[in-house]
Amino acid sequence: MPRSRTQTKKAQIMSLEEAAKTFMHDGIMCAWSGFTGFNRNPFAFAWQSVRQGVKNLHVIDRHGSCCTWLLNAAGAIKVYETDWMGWGEMAGKLDINLEKRYKKGEMILEDYSHGAMAMRFLAGAIGAPFIPYNAPLGSDLYNPKYDALGRAGMRGKDPRIPKKKFIQMEEPFWGEGDTVLLPSARPELAIIHVAQCGDKGTARWRGVGTIDKEISFAADKVVILAEEVVPESEMRKLPEGNQIPYFVVDAIVECPWGAFPSSVPFYYDYDAPFMRDMDKASRNPDDMKKFMDEWVYGPKSWEEFIVKLGAKRLLDLKADSVTGYSTRMMRGKKPAPRMKMPLSVAMSGY
Amino acid sequence: MAKSMEQLMELIDKMPEETAKPGEFILPELMAIQIAHQVRNDDIVFAGTGLPMVGIMTANFLNAPNALLIYESGICDGKTMHVPMSVCDQRAANMSSTLGGLVDTFGYYLQNGYVSLGFLGGAAIDKYGGVNVTSIGDYYSPGHRFTGSGGNSDIGTMAHRVAYIILQEKRRFIERNDYTTTPGWWCWDFKKNEWKPKKEVWKGTAYANSGPVAVVTNMGNYGFDEKGEIYLKSFHPGVTVEQIKENCGFALNVSLVEGETKKPTYKELFVLREFVDPELIFLPQKVEYPASIQKLING
C-alpha cells in the first residue's frame, strides 16, 4: 500500500518457524511467489503456516500453486482472489479441495485473468491506485453482476479490498474505445521463494520472473525464502542479475529445498509424481487425512520432511548447471532423451 | 542400438511426406498436428499448456522453425529441447531470447499488439467462438467449476488470430455459454445490456478485428465465416458429418466442408514422437511405425 515511510526496513534473518509465527496471522491478505505448481512455490512456508493453524486467509494471486493446494487442503483460505484456480497443470488441473469448499459455500472466489492480475500487481508495485487495461470487454469477468466480494458485502470496509471490482470507461486520451480500470493489488504480505538472497536482503532468482518483483513491491511486508543466503557483497558482483532490492525485505529465511515439490531453476526440478500423489490424495477424504498426517503434521521440521523424501529422490530432482532442470527424473512414461541442441535451432539457427 | 538424437535429427529429411494410414496414428497426434498447421513461420505465438504447447512445438520443429513462442510466465522465444509440463517450466525457458514476467508477456507483448497467434484450450464454446473456462450452471453455485480464465481471456481477445482446442460434445458446443470467459465474435455489451458483434463492443480499440479463426476438436476442424459464425471445415478420419452434427448443441453450418482432415504425414509423426514428446507426457502412447518407416529409422 503506498504510504510515506519514515523508517527504513531492516531485514532479519530468521528460522522458518519464527518467520511464519511473526508474519502470518488469521485473516491476512497474502500473495505467494512462483507460477502454478511448478516454479518457485514457497511451499515450506505454506507448510509451516498450516502447521501453525492459520485460518481465513485472503489469498490474492495470479495462480494456484502447491501452496494454495495445501492451504485449501487444510481449509485455510476464506477469500481467493485470483484468475486460475488450478494448481498443477498435469495433476488434474483443478484443486479438488478448493472445488469442494467452494461448492459448500466455505470460500469466496473472485475471478480475474492473468493479464488483469499482473496489471493489478504492477499498479500496486508502483504505488498507483488503479491501472487501465484492455481487459476483455464482453467477458463475464467484467459483467457487473459477477462481483463475488461485492455480493458478500466485503467491499468498501477493509482498506485492502477496493470499493469496486473494476470500472469500464471510455478511454479519455486517445479515443480508443472502452477500457477497463483495475484497482491495484495491496496484500499485507508477500512470500517469495528465490535462489539466492544476500544477508541484507537483496534477492535473485533464475528462470522466469512471473510477477514476484511486482508482488514484493505491492505488499507491505516481504518474507524471502532462499535456497542459499550468501554474503551481501557477493550479490553486488552482478547487480543486474538481482530482482529484489533489500529495502523492501522484512525477513530472510534460508530454506534449502523449500520450494519442493515445485522447482527452483538451476537448483532442482519439480516432482511430477509427488504432485500426482497429492492430487490423488485430495480425491478421497481418508487419503487426504493420511497425506496430511504423513507429510504435513508428521515431520518435526522442514528438514525432516526433506530427509523423508530420501536421497534417491533428491538426486533425481537435482538440476544440472547447464539447462537448469533435471533429465534424470521420470516425468512421463519414458526417460528424457539426451539432447545437445533444440531442434528448432538446428533447423533455423537463430 | 537406440539412435542418438543427433542421428535421429539427420533422418528427418528422409522421412516421407506421404500421409499415414488409419491405425498408424492416434487422435491426440492428429490433433497436435492440426494445431501445428495453424502456425506460420513468421508468427509470434502465445500458447497455453497441454496440447496447444505440444502442437506449436511441433510446428516450431517442422513448418515454422522461426515462429517465436511466448509462454505466459515470462518466456520469450524459448528454444525447447524437452517438452515442458507447464508454461513456467525451465524447459520452456531454454535458450530463450529474454526472460521476464507476466507484465512482459501480457503487457509489453500482448497488450502492445505483438502477438499474432494465440492457441488455447476451452471447456465449452459458443457458435461465435466465445469460450467458457470458468463455470457451468449458475456462476455463484455452479454445477461444474473450472480453473477460470488464467491467460485465456487476455490472449483470446488480444492475439490477432486465435485458435482453440476443445473436446467436442453436445454440452460443450452450445448456442450460448453459461459464462463467457473469453468473448468470441459476438458478446454482451454490458453497458447497454445488448448481445452484439464484438466489433461494435470493441469499436475504437486496437483489437476489434482480433478473435477466433480456428477450432480443432477430436472430431473435426472449424473455421469462422464473415458473420463470425463457426462452420465445419473438415472432419477427422473415421468421423462422419452426421456424427459431428449430433455432437453439436446448435445448428452447425456444414455447407462449407472441404472434406476429410488431412492425415498426418510420416515426417510429422516422426518429429512429434521422437522430438516433441518422446517422454510420453502428453501423448498417451507411442504407436509402432509401419515396417517401411521403421526400416528407414533402423538404417
List SSEs of chain B in N-to-C order. Answer: HHEHEEHEHEEEEEHEEEEHEEEHEHH
Radius of gyration of chain A: 21 Å
Give the second-level CATH assignment, the architecture of the domain at 12-254 in chain A.
Answer: 3-Layer(aba) Sandwich
CATH class of the domain at 12-254 in chain A: Alpha Beta
Please state the second-level CATH architecture of chain B: 3-Layer(aba) Sandwich
Main beta sheet of chain B, described?
10 strands, mixed
Could you list the spans of chain B in which at least 5 consecutive residues all have pLDDT below 50?
none
Commentary on this structure:
The complex is a heterodimer of chains A (350) and B (299). With 350 residues, chain A is of the alpha/beta class. Chain A has a domain at 12-254: Glutaconate Coenzyme A-transferase, CATH 3.40.1080.10. Chain A has helices at 16-23, 43-51, 66-73, 96-103, 114-125, 148-151, 212-218, 232-235, 272-282, 285-297, 302-309, 311-317, 343-348; strands at 12-13, 29-32, 57-60, 77-82, 86-88, 93-94, 108-111, 130-133, 167-170, 178-183, 189-198, 203-204, 221-230, 251-254. In chain A, strand 2 (29-32), helix 2 and strand 3 (57-60) form a beta-alpha-beta unit. Chain A starts with 11 loop residues before the first strand and ends with a helix. Chain B is of the alpha/beta class. Chain B has one domain (5-298): Glutaconate Coenzyme A-transferase, CATH 3.40.1080. Chain B has ten helices and 17 strands. Chain B has helices at 5-11, 27-38, 51-61, 90-93, 102-111, 152-158, 198-201, 241-246, 266-276, 291-298; strands at residues 44-47, 68-71, 75-76, 98-99, 117-121, 124-126, 131-132, 135-137, 142-145, 161-166, 173-174, 186-189, 194-197, 211-217, 220-224, 230-235, 259-260. A ten-stranded mixed beta sheet of chain B has the order 4-3-2-1-5-10-14-15-16-17, sandwiched between helices. In chain B, helix 3 links the parallel strand 1 and strand 2 (68-71). In chain B, 56% of the residues are buried. The model of chain B has no long low-confidence stretch (mean pLDDT 96). The chains are: A alpha/beta (350), B alpha/beta (299). At the A-B interface, strand 6, helix 4, helix 5, helix 7 and helix 13 of A face helix 1, helix 4, helix 5, helix 6 and strand 12 of B.
